[in-house]
Structure formats: C-alpha cells, structure tokens
Amino acid sequence: MKAERLFRILGLVDESLVEEAVSASSPAAVQRRHPWRRLAAAAACLAVICGGVFLAGTFRMGGSTGEADGGSVPGESGDGHNAGTTFMSYAGPVFPLTTAETDTGLTAERTVTWDFAPGTYQDGSPRQWGAQVTDDYVLTNPTEADVTVTALYPFAGSLADLGTIAPAVSADGVQAEATLYAGAYAGGFRDAGVDDGSTWNLAPPASWEDYAALLESGDYLAQALGAAPVLDIPVTVYRFSDFQAPHEEYDAATQAVEFTIDPEQTTILSYGFNGLSLDDETGWRRYDYFVPDGIRSESELKLLVVLGADIGDYTLQGYANGACEEAIGGVSCTVTRQETTLDAVLTELCQAELHDSGQSAQWPGLDQLPIPLYQRAVTEALLTSGLLADTPADRYTDGRLDDFLWDVLVQERVLYLAFPVTVPAGGSVTVSAELWKAPSYDYGCSGSENVGLQGYDLVTSLGSALDFTGQTAALVNTDTIEIVRQNLGFDLENGVTEVAMDLTEPHYYLEIRPLEE
Q: How many angstroms separate the CA atoms of 83 and 252, rounded?
C-alpha cells in the first residue's frame, strides 16, 4: 500500500485516486514522493484567487498544512461572553510581558492599544488589514533597593514571519537591545482527511486555549531559555555535484541513485532530491532529482545523509523525466563521500535554506535569521517529531530535510524577546512593545458567514510572572471599522474606546469588520 501512503502524505485522499495508484503500482511496491512545498504554493494561489489571504504556517484548508475545522462558530455580541469565533486561520493572542525571574517584588500596570489606522500595500492599494498594537507596562519597585530583571516579551508567529511580526521593545523610551529566543512548535499533527490517527499534516494552534495549555506550566518557556540540544552524531554524507544531462533533448532529465539498506541499521536523510521510491520489505531505495539546468529553480546542493550502517554499493542512472521509467544516457554527476557529524550538516543546510528562502520578497529579512536559533529549532524538531524522535510524525518518515527545514520556518510557535530592565528603588520604568498584529480570519472562498471578519485575542496573565495591579484596553483610529463581537466593553457609537479589564478574566477578544467606503 505504498501508493496509498503517498496520497496520505500529499493530502489527496480521494479513494478513486488511491485505488488507481494502488492498481498501477509495480510488484516492487514502489512509493513515489515529491516535495510538499509545491503543493503548498498551489494552495496559496487558490486562497488568493478565492479572495482570502494566505499566511505561511497557518493555512488550514486542506492540503499539506491542515484542513479547515468545519467553519466558524460565532459567539454572542456584547460584554461577558468569552467564546468568540473559532476562525479557520488563528493568529494567536497578544501575550503579557513576563520576566525570567520570579518573585521580583515589582508590580505592573498594563495598557494595550489597538491602532486601526488604514495602511496601504506596497502597490499603493488601500487596505484595512491587521492592527498596530502598543503594549505598555509601568513597572513599579516599592522596595528600597534597585531591582534588575530580564524582561521577556512573548509573541506568536513563525520564524519565517519575523521580518513583519517582531516587536520593537523599549524601556523609558530607549530602544532595548533584545535577544531572540524561540519556543518549540506550538501545534501538533493530524491526519490527511481520513480519521485514521495518522500524522501527515500540520495542526497549528486553533485557539487561545491551545496556547494556554502550552504555557501554563512554565515548561515551554524553560525549554526555550534552556541549553540547546547537540546532535554530535557521526554521519556519512554523499554529495552530488558537477551535473551533466542532455537538456536540449530532455528538459526534465533526471538522475537517480539506487541502493539497498537494512532499515533497522540505517536511516537516510535527504536534501535536494525530488523523489523517493522504496520497498520496505527488501530495503531497496531509489532517490532521484531533476538535473539542474541553470533555468529551473532547482537546488544544486544535493546530499544523502546516512545515519548508522553505510549504504555500501550504489548505482547511478539517468532518466528522461521524474517518472524514472525511460532510461537515457548522457546523464552524469560526481559523488563525494564524507564522514562528519549531523550538527555540521544541519549548519550547512540551515544556511542554504535561509539563503534560498530569503531571496523571496514574501519573507523579508529571513536571510538575517540567526543560524544558531534556526538550527536549534530544527534540532529540537528532529528529536520530537522527525526521524530522531521515538515516534516520528508520518509527515517526516521519508527523511526529506527540504520539507522538514521549511516546516520549521513556518510552524507557529511562541517567540521571546529578552532584554534587561532596572527599576530603581521606589521608582518605576515604562516598558513598551510595539508590533503589527495580523488578525485571525476565515478564508474568502469558504462560504463562512464570517468572511471579512478580523479577530484579535488578548490574554491577561497567561505565562507571566508579573504582579499586575491593573490592565486597560484601548482603541484608536476606529473610523474605518465596526465592532462585530467582543467581551471588552467598547462602545464606538458613544465614544467608549478605553476600558478596564478584569484581572480574573484570562482571555479577551475583539472582532471587527472594515467599513465599506
């Protein structure tokens, strides 16, 4: 049933497709696998065409990163209702400031302000999407000695989106030099549309309660701030280079490498390969790639990383295309064998991934992401859901590092900006975080009654060690929006744009809709 497994991976679970693939498979039970990222890009195009917005890492409408949760569940209007809408794409709440230390003796007053001033896209078209959030704290020291703490400002998002979502933090108006820490993937995995307990697809957090379950114990923050795991594991690397192929006759010329392993003794991780065919019973493997031609967007970094027993003898063969059915001549490459460590390989691949992905205007600043931070996130993911985990997610069982490295970039997580703050004896310091906050939303082609609605969440004390004495929420530049649902108490018609929040209420929500001109 290798063909069925392939369709589970890709999220194509139409039973007729599965039957067709199974009936067409060879006696060797060959499985063919291709990159997920191309499917994700196609799904993104669909979301845009339908009038929705695609945000990497939160696409939840089927395909490679998850499936819609069955539509939105509207909450009631007005104060006191704590349900809100369950959106198809959830952007995460605004979290409270915390400190690395506990029992600091400091008290805190908080004011969160959403600014709905209209902006414009780069092409000059008007928009009303997202809000500028200012999250202010007055930290007061009632003691007779100065108190220095490591302030931690948490925010939800992905490593790929850091260029647009990272807050600017300051203390008494002076911009702070902050260190970035990344928590682990905040979501989980789910099936590909068939309730079979499989883990082919990403399942990002869908509500503030998911973040509450993640942060309440403090373990998540402790892991983010703790020592990074080290994968000083010996590996054998096969590098493929110096590619040649008759591209003038075969524009999809393909190179394949075949060998047989004992799956109990050998684990293979690949990078830069487009397909994998295998037979688990015999241990036969065939990895293949389109031979780079200088035109197609194809990585020239192609590696097979062998953990455990080496692969031994292998054969190389050229094919007319990626189906690997019509053998051709004139296809060649140089294969270099190297013994190194997995850590060294991951450093190289993280650098390559950031360089390649950072060329896209969709991910501004991605090529500036610190390599150690990225590599740490990759290492942690390999140990928790990749092939080095006790129970790897089905999504990663083929060891394709291209997809794995990309997933780590776009997975939703909680990130932390750490910076020192000294509050003088008997005095106070104002700490401020300014960030652009994307809304939660439903997809434009979903048929949901909440299309066009923008949701914003706030949590009052989740994960914070601060002793809050008061919290306030405020709105500015509200002329172009209407409030549809909330539990805050704003009343735009009567000019109520600032409200005190109840510190015993863990979660507040605000759902707005832009007004038509």
A: 52
Identity of the residue numbered 57: G
The owner of tokens 């997920």 is: 36
Closest CA to 446 of 13, 86, 204: 86
Relative orientation angle of helices 36-49 and 401-410, to the nearest 10 degrees: 40
**Cα separation, 31 vs 15, whole angstroms:** 17
- Residue range 15-33, pLDDT digits in tens: 333 333 333 333 344 555 5
Q: Which two tokens stand for residue 202?
A: 């990403």
pLDDT score recorded for residue 299: 85
Return the bridge partners of 94, or none. 458
Give the CA angle between residues 244, 249, 252 to the nearest 5°.
65
Residue 295 DSSP code = S
Tokens describing residue 268: 């293979």
Tokens matching residue 118: 């209209």
3-state secondary structure of 454: strand
Please count the helices (runs of H) and the strands (runs of E) in the chain.
Answer: 9, 27
pLDDT tens figures, 467-481? 999 999 999 999 999
Contact, 80 vs 501, CB < 8 A?
Answer: no
Structure tokens at 10: 């890709």
Q: How far apart are CA 410 and CA 360, in angstroms?
A: 14
What CA–CA distance (Å, rounded) separates 335 from 343? Answer: 21
Mean pLDDT of 211-231: 96
Which residues, 6 or more positions from 344, have their beta carbon under 8 angstroms from its beta carbon?
none
Handedness of CA 42, 43, 48, 54 (dihedral sign): negative
Question: Please, are residues 449 and 485 in contact by the beta-carbon 8 Å criterion?
Answer: no
pTM for the model stands at 0.84
Q: Which residue has the higher pLDDT, 169 or 59?
A: 169
- Given the structure tokens 């995460």, which residue do they identify? 92
Contacts for 241 with CB less than 8 Å, ≥ 6 apart:
300, 302, 333, 334, 336
Structure tokens at 285: 């493997």
Confidence of residue 358 (pLDDT cuts 50, 70, 90): confident
CA distances from 367 to 34, 37, 163, 378 (A): 25, 19, 10, 16
Q: What is the DSSP letter of 362?
A: T
Q: What are residue 46's phi and psi, to 5 degrees? A: -60, -45
Q: Where are the alpha helices (DSSP H) in 358-480?
A: 371-384, 401-410
Identify the weakest region by mean pLDDT among 287-296, 302-311, 335-344. 287-296
Strand order in the sheet with 507-514: 454-459, 507-514, 481-486
* Rounded Cα–Cα distance for residues 91 and 71 (Å): 16
Tokens of 46: 């669909």
Q: How many alpha carbons fall within 13 Å on the CB side of residue 489? A: 9
* Of 236, 350, 255, 243, nearest in space to 303 by CA: 236
d(CA 463, CA 275): 43
Half-sphere exposure of 442 (CA within 13 A, CB side): 21
